Each structure stands twice: as C-alpha cells, then as structure tokens.
C-alpha cells in the first residue's frame, strides 16, 4: 500500500498580505501530478485544509478542484478537520462524497469508523481519521477523565484499537490526527491549541497502529519511524525560512513495516530574515542573494530611520515585514521590560501582574483559577469561530 501524507494546506491564507492562492494552486497541481506518477493508492490530509472556519470562495474552488482531480485519477482521499477548519462545514456532504472516494472525517463520534482501503492479496488497510479534538468540547463524548489533549486523544485511540481488534488478523492500520506530539518542534505560524490544559501528547498515545499521519505543526519531522508530521506544503511565517517543504510518500508492506520518502513541494519564493542597521542592510554585498526573496527586516538603529520601508524596497523589492529592536543599554527600562516578556505565556504574564500588584505570587488555587479563566476564554473563542 502506497499513499501520500500531507496536511496544513491552509487554503485561503495569505503571507503578510500577499495572496498565496497562486502558490496553493501550484502545490495542489503538484500533488495530483505526484499521485499520478508515483501511482499512489490513497492521499491522506491530516487537517487544516482551510485557514479559517469560513473560507473565501477562491479557497473553496481550489479545494473542489483538487478533489475532482484526485477522484478522476481513482485515488481515494481521506481528509480530517484541523483546528483552523470548521468541522461541521467541512463535513457537509461527507456521505455522498464518500461514494466518490473522498472520505471526510470531521465527527469525533465516528473517529473509530475506518476507511477500508483494499490491498489485495494482503488484506485491507484501515485508515482512521481523527479530527482535531478540542478537549473542552469533546470530553463528554469520550467520557475522558480530564479535559486535556492527552485524555481525549487517548480515549479516541482506545476506540480505534477496540475497532481494530474486531478486524481480520493482519489488518494494517493508519491513523490521521491533528495534534502537538511531545518532542516535536513548533514554529510561529501554528495557532495555539493550549485551551484545555497542556497541549502536548506523548507519542505512546498512538500505540497499536502501523503509521500515524500527523498534522498541525508546519515543519516536516519524524517523531519515530511510524509517527510523522508532513508539515505545511508552503511557508506561512518567516519562522519557516529554514524548512524544507515536502510531503511523505509512505509504503506500507504486507507486515505493516513503514518505508517513507520525502518529496519536495514547489517553493514560490525563498524567505530571508535580515537584521542590522538600515545602512548596513542596504550596503552589505553578502545580502545580494536575498534581493529576490520575501524579506523580514529587523532594524537595530538606535533611532528609527526616516521611511525605512521605502529605502529597503529599493534593494529588496519583496520586503514584507519590518520590525524595530534598537540597540539599547542593558539597564534601559524598555530593554529590560521586553526581555521579561519574551517567551512568556499569557497566563505567566497574568501571574506576574498579580505578584507585582499584591507583592506575593499566586498560590496553587489562584493559579488554577487563572488557568481555568484563560481556558474558558480560548474555548469560547473556538466555539464562536466554528459556529
């Protein structure tokens, strides 16, 4: 059995106000061409098909086009919803589309109902699609002990393993899931999923299946030989400048052993993060290779230069982002404050504020109240976005 593992298309997303629709169309054409030339038996998309719950019409047209193209090839496609998608909207028509070989898995209650892909003479491969599971919203469905990611994903996988136990001996199992697995490396362009407690789940949650096709993190990476992220096919933040964008071409042998090969995806334009004083960035000959890149410039001039964006655009026509981090003395109050905030979560900042105002840090019960308050706000935002 051979299949393509991809995720995090984020159709409709822009890159610093630059439309990515053309680049997304190029990627989807590449995906279809790869499915044809590599003679794959299926395509698995592990969530975040769209960038937001109500995508623009142009993004829907891209989605519709690629599904028709894959169906015309006779290649079954399994798609799950991610934390950016509206599961209910993405899942509309799932029953009818399944008859055409497009299998949408967006309902947590049916995550243990696999798509059975025939692989004669070796038997079926059962593909279980787990949509993104928001702990606060699905805890009751899974009767989970806690409203956190490990508890709800563990309960969902218990259902998967129970179903797999009813299948004929030798049935190979693949799980598509949208989650943050312990040991993986995030970047700046993924939406925070900390609502409901600690977001990271151990890879052991997925024990009992032969391959786990993960989505959510935008960097392609392997947790182990059978648990992998495909990453996003395109860069969506400058933090991804060193990513090699790709898909996994996975071969599952009759015994369930995994062979995986990375296939590069088209790059619309390289990324560059430049830092320094304006005059140095404009004059440094070593920066010449970046004149055709999308550029994020961080200026370190002690004082803000006059019209720096216009000056940078003369040398770097595709400069998109500009930040100021002036070189300051160590004792400068502004520099000290920025260092205190860097890398801290909203909850940590709130706890620091309580300590500053009251003179004592929050105790365990108070930290629990703050955690629950932030989780409630995040969960409410998710509900509002998806409705």
From TrEMBL:
It comes from the Bacteria. SUPFAM superfamilies: Metallo-dependent phosphatases. GO terms for biological process: DNA recombination; DNA replication. CDD domains: MPP_Mre11_N. Residues 1-219 form the Calcineurin-like phosphoesterase domain. Keywords: DNA recombination, DNA replication, Endonuclease, Exonuclease, Hydrolase, Nuclease. It holds the Pfam family SbcD_C. GO terms for molecular function: 3'-5' exonuclease activity; endonuclease activity. Residues 268-356 form the Nuclease SbcCD subunit D C-terminal domain. SbcCD cleaves DNA hairpin structures. These structures can inhibit DNA replication and are intermediates in certain DNA recombination reactions. The complex acts as a 3'->5' double strand exonuclease that can open hairpins. It also has a 5' single-strand endonuclease activity. Heterodimer of SbcC and SbcD. NCBIfam families: sbcd (TIGR00619). Belongs to the SbcD family. This is Nuclease SbcCD subunit D. It comes from Actinacidiphila reveromycinica. The gene is sbcD.
């Amino acid at each position: 059995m051979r299949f393509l593992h991809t995720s995090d298309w984020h159709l409709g997303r822009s890159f610093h106000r630059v439309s990515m629709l053309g680049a997304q169309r190029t990627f989807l054409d590449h995906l279809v061409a790869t499915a044809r030339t590599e003679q794959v038996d299926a395509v698995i998309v592990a969530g975040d098909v769209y960038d937001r719950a109500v995508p623009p019409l142009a993004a829907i047209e891209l989605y519709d086009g690629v599904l028709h193209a894959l169906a015309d090839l006779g290649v079954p496609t399994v798609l799950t919803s991610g934390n950016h998608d509206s599961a209910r909207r993405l899942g509309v028509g799932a029953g009818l589309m399944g008859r055409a070989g497009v299998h949408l898995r967006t309902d947590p209650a049916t995550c243990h109902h696999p798509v059975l892909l025939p692989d004669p003479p070796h038997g079926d491969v059962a593909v279980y699609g787990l949509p993104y599971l928001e702990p606060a919203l699905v805890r009751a469905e899974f009767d989970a002990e806690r409203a956190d990611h490990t508890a709800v994903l563990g309960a969902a996988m218990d259902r998967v393993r129970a179903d797999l136990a009813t299948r004929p001996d030798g049935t190979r199992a693949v799980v598509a899931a949208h989650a943050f697995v312990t040991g993986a490396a995030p970047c700046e362009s993924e939406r925070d999923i900390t609502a409901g407690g600690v977001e990271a789940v151990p890879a052991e949650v997925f024990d009992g299946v032969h391959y786990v096709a993960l989505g959510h993190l935008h960097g392609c990476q392997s947790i182990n030989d059978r648990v992998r992220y495909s990453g996003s096919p395109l860069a969506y933040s400058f933090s991804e400048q060193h990513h090699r964008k790709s898909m996994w071409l996975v071969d599952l042998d009759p015994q369930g052993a995994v062979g995986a090969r990375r296939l590069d995806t088209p790059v619309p334009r390289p990324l560059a993060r430049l830092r320094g004083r304006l005059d140095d960035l404009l004059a440094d000959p070593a920066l010449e290779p970046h004149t055709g890149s999308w550029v994020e410039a961080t200026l370190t001039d002690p004082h803000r230069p006059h019209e720096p964006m216009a000056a940078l655009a003369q040398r770097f026509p595709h400069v998109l982002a500009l930040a100021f981090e002036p070189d300051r003395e160590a004792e400068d109050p502004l520099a000290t404050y920025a260092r205190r905030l860097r890398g801290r979560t909203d909850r940590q900042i709130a706890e620091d504020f309580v300590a500053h105002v009251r003179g004592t840090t929050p105790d365990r019960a108070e930290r629990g109240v703050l955690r629950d308050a932030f989780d409630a706000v995040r969960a409410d935002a998710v509900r509002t976005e998806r409705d």
